[in-house]
């Protein structure tokens, strides 16, 4: 069997130690996992994607629809960005790129990037739960469950794998990460009853990131990190395939 993996991800699935890479870069973890299984990975991902973006892609992108009848495993490698501090409400923050005129957009973006680390630290110290995140945990698992049900409606019985949120040391976020524990609890509580296998990204690649061995941005992984996650994904999928 040459399994076909449908992988929904964020930039951790296609960003290497120096830059974002094309989806067919063989050193990216989805491709490493597929190669180890003797199969192929179809990556659906974007920078800053949350679980809500994955659901939107699944329901609106006809290229994804074309893949579904041939999928042998679903990998929901999404939800880590949901846990990041978001001092400005997500809906407003996502409007910054479309502000006009361009000079206003540049000023707003620069101001937000300067303020975000300070606000993230301040909120982590003073607000319950550490302040707002990009997507609250209950919405993360709601969108993950929608993705799972939708794919299984077309490919019943295939394995579904998700990820426990990763860690970061990114200066642009403080670096603080107070929203991660609640998100991990929510993902684990959802995954068990739903029959979803989990890859614990903190266990697999946490030392790599926190030890400064990944991308200098403190969030994305080096090739050793991709290799470790690729192996973990392959092992998880292999154990679930017929």
UniProtKB/TrEMBL annotation:
This is SGNH/GDSL hydrolase family protein. Pfam families: Lipase_GDSL_2 (PF13472). It comes from Pseudonocardia petroleophila. GO terms for molecular function: hydrolase activity. Residues 7-228 form the SGNH hydrolase-type esterase domain. InterPro entries: OctT, SGNH_hydro, SGNH_hydro_sf. Keywords: Hydrolase. It comes from the Bacteria.
């Amino acid at each position: 069997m040459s399994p076909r993996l449908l992988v929904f991800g964020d930039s951790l699935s296609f960003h290497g130690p120096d830059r974002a890479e094309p989806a067919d870069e063989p050193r990216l973890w989805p491709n490493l996992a597929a190669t180890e299984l003797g199969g192929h990975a179809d990556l659906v991902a974007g920078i800053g994607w949350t679980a809500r973006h994955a659901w939107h892609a699944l329901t609106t992108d006809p290229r994804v629809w074309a893949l579904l009848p041939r999928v042998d495993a679903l990998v929901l490698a999404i939800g880590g960005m949901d846990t990041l501090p978001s001092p400005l409400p997500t809906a407003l923050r996502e409007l910054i790129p479309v502000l006009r005129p361009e000079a206003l957009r540049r000023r707003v973006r620069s101001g937000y990037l300067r303020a975000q680390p300070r606000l993230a630290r301040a909120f982590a110290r003073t607000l319950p739960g550490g302040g707002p995140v990009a997507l609250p945990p209950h919405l993360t698992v709601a969108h993950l469950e929608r993705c799972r049900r939708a794919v299984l409606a077309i490919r019943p019985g295939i394995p579904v794998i998700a990820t426990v949120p990763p860690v970061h040391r990114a200066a642009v976020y403080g670096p603080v990460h107070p929203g991660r524990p609640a998100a991990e609890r929510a993902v684990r509580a959802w995954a068990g009853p739903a029959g979803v296998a989990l890859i614990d990204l903190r266990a697999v690649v946490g030392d790599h990131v926190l030890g400064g061995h990944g991308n200098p941005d403190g969030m994305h992984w080096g090739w050793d990190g991709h290799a470790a996650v690729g192996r973990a994904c392959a092992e998880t999928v292999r154990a679930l395939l017929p």
